[in-house]
Amino acid sequence: MKNFTEQEIAQMYDYENLPEDLKDAIFGLEMNEIVEKIGRENQLNIEQIGDLANETGMVMLGVTHPSEFISNLADRLEVDKEKARIIAQEINEQI
User: Fold this and answer.
1) DSSP readout, 31-57?
2) pTM of structure
């Protein structure tokens, strides 16, 4: 998979360039509420919940391959792989 520069990622996240359905999915209130709920249920702090939202968005944009999601969560959230797997499964089921 291609490694994207920060500028390329910023362009992907550029609200004006995203299709409407993707805007709703990534930036919508429902997604934010779901991510926050999953984070709280898994005893994540506010910074970790933000990282969870960012990692979820990166998968949705195609920047991160879904197969890398669990390992990225484990690294970014500083949790073990099993907890990252549980969180990823909840994200996959609810979003």
Assistant:
1) HHHHHHHHHHHTT--HHHHHHHHHHHH
2) 0.78
Pick from 58, 9, 15: which is nearest to 35 by CA?
58
The C-alpha atoms of residue 62 and residue 53 are separated, in whole angstroms, by 14
Amino acid at 14: D
Q: Please write the tens of the pLDDT for every residue from 24-36.
A: 666 677 888 999 9
Compute the half-sphere exposure of residue 7: CA atoms within 13 Å on the CB side of its CA.
0
Structure tokens at 46: 């506010």
Burial of 38 (0-12, 13-18, 19+ CB in 10 A): buried
